[in-house]
Amino acid sequence: MQNSAPRSFPQPGHVYDLAVVGAGLAGSELAWRAAHAGQDVLLVSQSLDTVANLFHSDVPAPFPPTTLLEQARLRALPDTSSWALHRQVKYLLEATPGVHLLQSLVVGIEPGEPLRLATWEGPERLARRVVLAVGSFLRGRLWIGDSEEQAGRLSEVAYDDLADDLERRRVLLGTEQREAPGESGSLPYRVNYRVLPRTPDFALQGLSGVYALGTCTAGEHSYASVLEDAAQLAGELTGVRA
Asked: Which segments constitute the MnmG N-terminal domain (predicted)?
């Protein structure tokens, strides 16, 4: 893949080629591929400590070849913990020219050219195109027994304001549920969350220039499938195929 994008030095009013909301597996993979294809990419995560977090404590092997996640998994060996994978993915993203990895909470999208991302902290972020890759966090509700938490995974806050904003813009949201087994002494839990319509080209109907990717879209997903979808969308957005 190409690697021609300089690392951006964003100032107020800076317009990115692409903003990716959510730095899970799908979002991280997409941002990495788009930057290698020459794009100036903003990758927004509500916490830099949860980049590429998994639902499982150990990393399944292997991920699809040529992916960021497989590179990170191999670098982390012999450690197969999800935390080791997180460290390597974060390291590789921060070492990639063209990726600006930002900790911020996106609460809304204002249509236009460029698109404007509203944040909980206040400053707007501008981009020509936006990809939502927010996983199970779109109005996520986590249940442990009879206890409920506003989260998409243990102790990780949900995107309630973003879900509200999308509904105000007449984006239809469905509902999905995931279950996580108890591992390493932790309790099992389930997550109910909202999902966006899944389309062949990943475009979000009604919001021009906005796309949706990964677990936040309707249907069955696996670690491998969201990485393959990220590669496909990166190719469509940049014209550079893996």
From this structure: 17-54, 85-168
pLDDT tens for each residue of 206-222: 899 999 999 999 999 99
Per the structure, the count of domains in the chain is: 1
Give the span between the Cα atoms of 153 and 143, in whole angstroms: 10
Task: Please tell me the distance from the alpha carbon of residue 55 to that of residue 75, in angstroms, as a whole number.
Answer: 20
- Does any domain span residue 93? yes
150 domain-assigned: no
Please state at what angle helix 82-94 crosses helix 68-76, rounded to 10 degrees: 120
For residues 82 and 87, give the distance between their C-alpha atoms in angstroms, rounded to a whole number: 9
Q: Which CATH number does the domain housing residue 100 bear?
A: 3.50.50.60
Tell me if 142 sits within 8 A of 154, measured CB to CB: yes
| Entry pTM | 0.92
